[in-house]
C-alpha cells in the first residue's frame, strides 16, 4: 500500500480503541480493523463519505489533535478508494469510519456481541448458498 496512506490515528480514537480492547479482550489493532470494516459498511449504507459526514455533522472533538501512527489495514483499502473518489482527506475518512464503526459496536452490545452477530449472519448466508447449490444438483 502507498506509504501516503500510513495513518495518524487521532489520540481520542486510539484511546477509545484501547479501552474497548481492554474491556473485551484483544488488541487495539484488532478493534481498529473490525471498527474500520463496520464503518465502511455504514459509509456505503449512507451513500458515501460526504453523505455520512453530513449525517454525523461536525467531526468528533479531537479529530485533528495528537495522533498515533498506524498502518492502514487491507480491510480499509476500499475506504481509501472512496476517499480519493470523493475528494475527502484520508484522515477524515478514517475518523468517520472509526466513529461509525465504534458506534455500531456500542449499539449492538459491545465488541464480542457484535462479532457474534456478524458470524451468525455469515453462517446464515453461507447455509443459504450451500442449500441453493445442493438443490440444483
Give the arrangement of secondary structure elements.
Elements: E1 7-10, H1 11-24, H2 28-46, H3 49-56, E2 67-70, H4 77-86, H5 90-107, H6 111-136
Helix pairs in contact: 1-2, 2-3, 2-5, 4-5
Description of the structure:
- This protein has helices spanning 11-24, 28-46, 49-56, 77-86, 90-107, 111-136; strands at 7-10, 67-70.
- The chain is mainly α and 137 residues long.
- The chain has one domain (3-136).
- A two-stranded antiparallel ribbon has the order 1-2.
- The longest helix has 26 residues, at 111-136.
Number of strands: 2
Strand content: 5-15%
Describe the global form. globular
Low-confidence stretches: 1-5
* SSE run: EHHHEHHH
What percent of the residues sit in helical stretches (DSSP H or I)? 55-70%
Taking all residues together, what is the mean pLDDT? 81
Please tell me the total number of domains. 1
Reading side by side through the largest sheet, how are the strands ordered?
A: 1-2
Instruction: Characterize the main sheet.
Output: 2 strands, antiparallel
Q: Count the helices. How many?
A: 6
End-to-end C-alpha gap:
42 Å
Structural class: mainly alpha
**Measured on Cα atoms, how large is the radius of gyration?**
16 Å
